[in-house]
Amino acid sequence: MADLTLRVVEDPASLRADWNRLAAHAGAMSLFATYEWHATWFRRVAPDSRPAVLAATVADGTVVGLAPFCDGPYKDLGLQLPAVGFSGRDVVSGDYLDVLAEPGWHGRVVEATLGHLAGVLRSGRLVVLGEIVHGSDLDAAIREWVEREQLRFRVQEERVCPYLELPSSFDDYLKTRSRNTRSLIRRRIRQVGEAGCAVQRLEGDAILPHLPRFFDLHRARWESAGQRGVFIRSGFPEFVQDLVAAPPPGVVPVLHALSEKDDVSAAFLVFHCGPTAVYYQAGWDPASEHARLSPGLVLMARAIEAAIEAGCTTFDFLRGGEGYKRKFTETVRRTYTLLVSGRGLRSRTYLTALRAKDTIKRLLGRTDPNGAW
User: Fold this and answer.
1) Where residue 226 sits, what CATH number does that domain have?
2) Are residues 61 and 176 in the same domain?
């Protein structure tokens, strides 16, 4: 097989066409694999991180693989440690991150990428590989790598990501739910209509005028629970606005909104990415008179129905095992983040402190018995 050459690219725009060509092979992770996702993240959320994209080419210059990496500070416990890891992750909840490759090349590109990361570790930097799918080819390769090289590492941020395989019709989907859940969904949809509310479905540019209200609803939802929500984080509202205004190729932003006349009291933002619909963020007004009608349940049902009508075969709820998601599916993926310390004293000391903390948690019985490792 042809030899691979790796190079670090600090200008992601020069790889845009190749990047999205490779992202098209990413399956369930296609939204988070695109150039636009990562470029917008660098611009809006992580200006202090430097692109360090790893491009794998063959002799004729064809890019057959790509690792969307960044070089920047990893911040924790009041420390800022030099680190290399996947971009498009922090703040914006990028899930299912992986090395991209042409069919038949993934294993070789991953092997070469891990060889490159070994050099990163020798330089004293931390390696942060976030949102790896448990049971994936990348997961298997990383496990073998850390064991072979006897690396110092920590597994953290183990998450559950519910999803469901969609049937050909919404009625067929409802048949997979319990009688109580089916009855509840149908009753709430009927009651919303009887209350004079309508569920709007907006796509593309039509969403933009409604985003400020969407951000307000998201904040209201979390403030009612004594929390602040994610849109207070610097650059995140602008990230979403840019992504809706200029989505990646083949991606359709969809906003499902519950409204009475011009008053929107709840909204769900979903991205249709080829065969996958991705539920991204939501918000509703707990003080609205319609809050008693379970607007989240209604909008989720309508979002699933719309995904089926659009020809999607998978609906992904992304990270989080919240109870409301279990009303809609029982199937999950598991992801985790891997920290690997380099030769630098600070990164080794930091990882040692974290592992000591983990040991104490295990002794106290506070760890997840179903953890990825």
Assistant:
1) 3.40.630.30
2) no
Whether 55 and 129 map to the same domain: the answer is yes
Q: Bigger pLDDT: 243 or 359?
A: 243
Give the H or E element holding residue 214. Answer: helix 211-223
Task: Please calculate the CA angle 198-283-322 and round it to the nearest 5 degrees.
Answer: 115
Residues 271 and 345 in one domain: no
pLDDT at 308 over 90: yes
The answer to whether 7 and 55 have CB atoms below 8 angstroms apart is yes
Q: Which two tokens stand for residue 293?
A: 């009608």
Tens-place pLDDT, residues 64-106: 999 999 999 888 888 888 999 999 999 998 899 999 999 999 9
Are residue 343 and residue 223 in the same domain, yes or no?
A: no
Q: Is residue 134 part of a domain?
A: yes
Number of domains in the chain: 2
Q: Find, among 84, 90, 95, 87, the residue nearest to 132 by Cα.
A: 95
Mention every residue, 6+ apart, whose C-beta is less than 8 A from residue 59: 2, 3
How far is it, in rounded angstroms, from Cα 4 to Cα 63? Answer: 9
Tens of pLDDT, residues 196-213: 999 999 999 999 999 999
145 pLDDT above the threshold of 80: yes
DSSP 119-161: HHHHTT-EEEEEEEETTSHHHHHHHHHHHHTT--EEEEEEEEE
How far apart CA 252 and CA 310 sit, in angstroms, is 10
pTM: 0.92
